[in-house]
Amino acid sequence: MKLDEIREIARKRGVKAGKMKKADLIRAIQAAEGNPACFESGTVDQCGQGACLWREDCR
Hints:
The chain is built from two helices and no strands. It starts with a helix and ends in a 27-residue tail after the last helix. It has helices at residues 3-13, 22-32. By secondary structure, the protein is mainly alpha-helical. The mean pLDDT is 92. Helix content is 37%, strand content 0%. It has one domain (3-57). Residues 1-30 form the Rho termination factor-like N-terminal domain.
């Protein structure tokens, strides 16, 4: 997903993107949604969140 699309999602969730890097912004969105802020934390194989919006880009 492109950064502009992520920034739009952040805006809709009330997260101020500022100059955050992609991974930091996604984790902020996850936290704002009440989800574990786990994007690119190395747990993609164990997270169990198959329907996660960020799954395709996660490592």
